[in-house]
Design brief:
Elements: E1 2-3, E2 9-10, E3 14-19, E4 22-27, H1 28-33, E5 59-65, E6 68-73, E7 79-83, H2 84-92, H3 112-115, E8 117-120, H4 121-126, H5 128-140, E9 143-147, H6 153-161, E10 175-177, E11 193-196, E12 208-216, E13 219-220, E14 223-227, H7 228-238, H8 240-248, E15 250-257, E16 260-267, E17 269-271, E18 277-280, H9 294-311, E19 318-320, E20 327-331, E21 335-339, E22 342-343, E23 349-356, H10 358-367
Parallel strand pairs: 1-5, 8-9
Antiparallel strand pairs: 2-3, 3-4, 5-6, 6-7, 9-20, 10-23, 11-21, 12-20, 12-23, 13-22, 14-19, 14-21, 15-16, 17-18
Helix pairs in contact: 5-10, 7-8, 8-9
The chain binds fe (ii) ion.
Fe (ii) ion (FE2) binds at residues 187, 196, 198, 337.
C-alpha cells in the first residue's frame, strides 16, 4: 500500500484528510458508504449493503488530487472517488450533513404579533419566493399569518397541502372550531381555552397547525399565542432546578370519549441533541393523573405549576383578534395557544383547522432551495 500524497495519514480504522480547515478524521466504513456508487441513480436510495462486505473496509491505495480523494479498497475490486468539497462541507458542519432547514429558532415575546410574517394565500400559491418566506418563518419563528384567504373549505386544503399532506387525527382530517351541541372538546364551547399544545394524547402530537378564520364577529374570543420554547429557555435561566425536572420525566396525557381511549406519555420540555429546547407539551385539559413516584411529585408539581403560570405571564403572551380571511399557522410543538372566552349570542365564530407534519414543512423548504429570503 502507498499514498501518493503523504499529507493523508492512514490509521487502523480510518484516515486523516488534510482539508483547508485542518486534518479531519474519516472512518473507513463511512468513506466506503459515502461512495456515489452506493446510491441507485433512479430511486436515489442506497443499494449498497456495507454489512455484506466479507471484512471491514481498508484501503490498498489512497490519493488526493484535482479536488478529489481516491481510495482503492483492498478486499474489493472497487475504487471510490470522493469530492473534497463534500468532505469539507461535512467537516465544517461538525460531522453532520449540511441542512438548509436547520434554521436557529428566533424567540418572540408579548409583542410577537406585530412581527409575525404575513403572506397572502395568493402569493404562497403562485410565487415560490413567497412560499419559501412562509416556510422559513414557520421554521424560524414557529408561526406565520396567511392573509386574504378565500372563504371555502377547499381554500384551507390548498394552503395546507402547499406544505405537505394533511395528517389525520381521531376527529378526521379537518376540524371546525365553533359552538356545538354535546362538544367533544373544550374548544367547541364559548369558554376560555387555556394555553395548550394540541393532542398530546397522540403517540406523536400533530406538527404544524392551521387555523383558518372563516368568521369572527363575536365579542371577546381574542387569540392567545406564546412562544413556548422562549418561555422554557427563560425558565432554564430563572429556575434551573425546575427546568431540569421538566426535561427529565414523561407524564401521561389522554383523550377519552365515546369510542376513544387515547393515551401517551410526553415530556413537558424537550431538548435536542445540542441541549437546546426543541419543543414542549402543555395541556391542562388532556393531562392524566401523573404516574411519577409520589415522592418525586413533591418537587415535580411545583416545577410544573410554576411553568404553567409563567406561560400566562404578560411578558410572554401575544394577544390579537383573528379576523375572517386570515389563517394562523404554527408549530404545535413550540407555540402554545389558547383563546379568551367569547359571548356566543352576538355573532358567529368559526375556525377551520388541520395539521401537516413538521417533516413535510422542512422537506418543502429544502426543495424550494437554498436562497430563502
Ligand atoms: Fe388547540
Amino acid at each position: 500500500m502507498h499514498s501518493e500524497n503523504h499529507a493523508i495519514k492512514l490509521d487502523k480504522k480510518g484516515l486523516y484528510v488534510p482539508l483547508s480547515t485542518g486534518l479531519f478524521y474519516f472512518n473507513y466504513y463511512w468513506l466506503r458508504d459515502a461512495c456515489s456508487s452506493t446510491i441507485d441513480p433512479a430511486t436515489r436510495e442506497r443499494v449498497f449493503e456495507i454489512s455484506e462486505l466479507p471484512c471491514p473496509p481498508y484501503p490498498s491505495a489512497v490519493s488526493m488530487h484535482n479536488g478529489k480523494l481516491t481510495i482503492d479498497w483492498r478486499d474489493e475490486q472497487h475504487q471510490s472517488v470522493l469530492p473534497l468539497s463534500m468532505l469539507s462541507d461535512f467537516a465544517a458542519n461538525g460531522g453532520r450533513i449540511p441542512d438548509i432547514a436547520d434554521i436557529p429558532r428566533r424567540p418572540w415575546y408579548a409583542d410577537g404579533y406585530a412581527n409575525f410574517k404575513r403572506v397572502t394565500q395568493h402569493d404562497i400559491e403562485t410565487n415560490d419566493t413567497e412560499k419559501k418566506r412562509f416556510a422559513h418563518a414557520l421554521i424560524e419563528d414557529g408561526i406565520a399569518l396567511v392573509t386574504d384567504m378565500h372563504n371555502s373549505d377547499e381554500s384551507l386544503t390548498r394552503l395546507a397541502t402547499s406544505l405537505g399532506p394533511v395528517t389525520p387525527v381521531v376527529d378526521g382530517y379537518y376540524f371546525d372550531v365553533r359552538l356545538t351541541i354535546d362538544p367533544t372538546n373544550l374548544a367547541y364551547t364559548a369558554n376560555a381555552l387555556e394555553l395548550h399544545t394540541d393532542l398530546p394524547n397522540e403517540d406523536s402530537a400533530p406538527g404544524v397547525q392551521f387555523l383558518h378564520c372563516r368568521a369572527n364577529d363575536v365579542s371577546g374570543g381574542r387569540s392567545l399565542f406564546v412562544d413556548g420554547t422562549a418561555v422554557a429557555e427563560t425558565l432554564r435561566n430563572e429556575k434551573p432546578e425546575f427546568f431540569n425536572l421538566l426535561c427529565a420525566h414523561d407524564i401521561p396525557f389522554y383523550r377519552r370519549h365515546i369510542g376513544w381511549d387515547y393515551r401517551a406519555h410526553q415530556r413537558i420540555i424537550e431538548l435536542d441533541a445540542a441541549g437546546n429546547v426543541s419543543g414542549l407539551t402543555i395541556s391542562q385539559h388532556l393531562q392524566d393523573s401523573i404516574d411519577l413516584p409520589q415522592s418525586l411529585l413533591d418537587d415535580y408539581y411545583p416545577a410544573l405549576c410554576h411553568f404553567h403560570r409563567m406561560l400566562k405571564e404578560d411578558r410572554f403572551v401575544t394577544r390579537f383578534r383573528l379576523s375572517a380571511g386570515e389563517c394562523i399557522v404554527f408549530d404545535n410543538h413550540r407555540v402554545v395557544h389558547g383563546r379568551e372566552a367569547f359571548v356566543a349570542e352576538d355573532g358567529e365564530r368559526h375556525l377551520r383547522g388541520c395539521y401537516v407534519d413538521r417533516g413535510s414543512l422542512r422537506s418543502t423548504y429544502r426543495t424550494l432551495g437554498a436562497n430563502a429570503s
